Amino acid sequence: MARVGLSFSDRSEISTASKAGWSVRRIARHLGRCPSVISRELHRNSTKTRGYQAVTADVRAQRRRARPQQRKVAGDPVLQARVDADLAASWTPNEIAGRLRLEATDPTVERMANSPDARGRTVSGEAIYQYIYAIPKGELARKGIFLQSKRTKRRPRTTGRTRGGPIVGMVPIAERGEDAAQRRVPGHWEGDLIIGKNGTSCAATLVERMSGFTGLLALPTETLPRKHANPIKRLTALAHALAADGLVPDAGQLAHERLHGVLNGLAAQHPKELAKAQEAVLTVAGGTVRGHHGLRTDDTWSEDADDRAIQEAYRHGARNITPDVARTYIDHLAEDADDEDVLRDAHVRVAALAMLPQTRPKLDEAADALSAEWLSLEISRGCGLGGWT
Description:
mainly alpha, three-stranded antiparallel sheet, two-stranded antiparallel sheet, 16 helices, Transposase_IS30-like
């Protein structure tokens, strides 16, 4: 049987039942869940002052599901210093993990020479491997970290990848101007893309039509173009590749900050439309149709939206501006995740912004512009640092 996570509706039921004094097992029977699932949910997402709140719990669950997450080793300076020192001394990750467990459980065991004090911390060998594979190659070399297998990335589970789609926005050679075709006027450049075996690598080429000067530059990891790609998803993939290759540190954060600025600008430029959209999110409208002996009456009504309706509007809006942008914009708006009112206002704002017709085109435009800016920057670096052949 497939494992199904708790939905916002389930969390609303848990919140109502817990406030009514129901036991964990009674809530589990009511929802058709295991008692351990309900117990774990209440333990993870209850606050000291307000208890279990459905919106707070749902936001925390979304943040825990978000990827990438900060690794255990990278998030602990003491543990990171110990792991870096032992890796530089040619210890394997499993040897380091075993030694840390031994030192933590047996006080008589002394540290190895040149190994910082771990202060009783332990970590698994897999966590150390994940820490190593997340570090760019250049930083690994500077730290003197080399695995015995000589690998800097995890071995792929598949033998190869299928080739991606054609170049997006490609202009055929037959459509070039007469000056460029005759090679008489300098300054006309011809670009192309070389895709390696199984589509696992690619390189960009630029040829000056008159002189024949050719530039060749390897592109970042996994940035092969995809046909009809979503501009925001294309930007996210490019940001992850540039950050993984160490070309643009914190590229993912920079990309989301640029998109957050677009959303802030739209809110400032269209305050009336935004206020109207927020009112629509906070109001649930309905109607009643009655018929009797050929007579028909229509009654319309409206009422304030509850948390479930607001969450449904937020999810619909998140699909429009992509879930990743919606989640990080919620974090940008609501720094205190335990404040129920702030979180509610942030969800309403995201849902309302997604309803504006200008929002998605502006986000796509900003994503395409930043992608082009980063790719142009890398080509310029290749020219200036002698990376061309």
